[in-house]
Amino acid sequence: MLVNNNLHRPLEVVLEIPVRTYDIDFMGIVSNIVYIRWLEDLRLKFLDEHWQLNQQIEQGYAPVLAGTEIEYKRPIKIIDKVIGRLWLGNIGRLKWTVQAEILSNNKLAAVANQKGGFVSLQNNRLIPIPEELQKKYLQHQQGIQKN
């Protein structure tokens, strides 16, 4: 799994992540399942900054997750300083992809990709990506091309 190594990271959010005692497994390292929670925290921050969940619900739709891939690079311990980064990797007509990295003491600890879409709250069917989010992504893409 490759994560975008250049600075082209549309709508990137950064989150300082505390490691809690309940995040640690019997080996003294962060349990694999904790990374899923951290990705959820990053997606919620993304929504807070770029596409607020309460507005989506008012408009009758919500995001759904279709898949997660994580590649663990190094273990994280309770004393480590952890930073998460997440950005919009791709957006299509019906589906989106976000990419993420987890850094521990400024070293890459994990990379992840998540895929999803938006569903109607009335019938739970996939709907096209909201036009406003597509525009925001395209504006970022055009800004990169101009530089």
TrEMBL record:
Any Pfam family the entry gives: 4HBT_2
Q: Which CDD domains does this chain map to?
A: 4HBT
Kindly give the PANTHER family that the UniProt entry links to this protein. Answer: 4-HYDROXYBENZOYL-COA THIOESTERASE FAMILY MEMBER, LONG-CHAIN ACYL-COA THIOESTERASE FADM
Q: What is this protein called?
A: Acyl-CoA thioesterase
Q: Which organism is it from?
A: Nostoc flagelliforme FACHB-838
